[in-house]
Structures are given as C-alpha cells and as structure tokens.
Design brief:
mainly alpha; coiled coil
Length: 76
C-alpha cells in the first residue's frame, strides 16, 4: 500500500528547486576539482617520467665513464 501523496505547494517546490540547484552547483565544482586533479596528476606523472629518463641517462653516462677509466680494461 502506497502512502497518499500530498500535492506540493509553491513553498515546497521552491525549497526543492533550490536544493536541486545547490546540489548541481556542488556537482559542477566537484567535476572541476576532479578535472584539475587529473590534470595535475598527469603533469606529475610526466615529471616523474622525465626525471626517471634523466636518471637513466646519468647512470648510463657514469657507466661509460667508469668503463673508460677502469683499470681492468688496461692490458699490458
């Protein structure tokens, strides 16, 4: 058995309409924050990738320099 529904008066409709608008504004703000966070995350991931590549290049250069001066490579 369904409860009987009362007709909504103008005051109730205004309150509900305001609540819907407020909720929609909050949703829009959260979507903007989500987009900003995703953009920031992507930038940080790119930065990490760049730093990782730089570290790998640096390590490779150190390995090359170590090979160039390694006494074990010097033959009599």
């Amino acid at each position: 058995i369904l409860p009987s529904l009362k007709p909504l008066n103008n005051s109730t409709l205004e309150v509900l309409t305001k609540q819907i608008r407020d909720a929609d504004e909050r949703r829009k703000k959260l979507e903007q924050q989500k987009l900003a966070a995703a953009t920031e995350l992507q930038a940080k991931q790119e930065e990490i990738k760049t730093l990782s590549n730089e570290a790998e290049r640096q390590k490779a250069m150190e390995n090359i320099q170590n090979l160039e001066v390694s006494p074990s490579l010097i033959t009599s």
